[in-house]
Write a structure and sequence with these properties.
Blueprint lengths: L6 E11 L2 E5 L6 E4 L7 H7 L7 E6 L13 E5 L15 E6 L2 E10 L3 E5 L9 E12 L2 H6 L13
Antiparallel strand pairs: 1-2, 1-3, 1-9, 4-9, 5-8, 6-7, 7-8
Length: 162
């Protein structure tokens, strides 16, 4: 089966910039998504179209096809209690997750005060030309419940109520 609209696809990826590896899913859980629901970077989703289990490929994405260009001065002061991550002590240069009414966003901490942190709202990969090496593991038709929820469910459902 080939990846097309409403396919549930599972794949491993290695992400690099200028030949230097940034992150990889290999050795961890693969990435899953439903094709055509805009839950994936546009350029990567285009490259995945028509691929099947066992396919491996490489695609290089300009910022416009991935995380966008960097916006200078996109700094916001955020209360420390709103920063989510694996640490109790925040320092400049660390990344954190922040929930807003637009969803969850990754931010980079620029400066930490007693109660607030100045955070760069640009995604850490904004402005970068990124290369994804992808290995497609499985492709299947998504269930109607998965399509309505907008994500792939693991065995036993998704663990939240809609």
């Amino acid at each position: 089966m080939q990846i097309s609209k409403n396919s549930a696809a599972e794949f491993h990826y290695t992400l690099s910039e200028a030949g230097e590896q940034i992150e990889t899913s290999t050795g961890n859980e693969p990435l899953t998504y439903i094709h055509g629901l805009e839950g994936m970077l546009p350029g990567l989703e285009t490259a995945l179209e028509g691929k099947a289990a066992g396919d491996s490929f490489s695609v290089t994405l300009e910022p416009s096809e991935s995380y966008g260009e960097r916006v200078d001065d996109l700094i916001q002061r955020i209360p420390l209690k709103h920063l989510q991550g694996d640490t109790k002590v925040w320092k400049a240069g660390m990344t954190a997750m922040v929930s807003s009414n637009q969803g969850r966003h990754q931010v980079t901490i620029v400066k930490v005060g007693r109660f607030n942190a100045d955070c760069d709202l640009n995604h850490p990969f904004a402005g970068k030309t990124l290369t994804f090496d992808v290995q497609v593991l499985s492709v299947r038709e998504a269930t109607s419940e998965e399509v309505s929820h907008g994500h792939v469910h693991s065995e036993g459902g998704c663990g939240h109520n809609h």
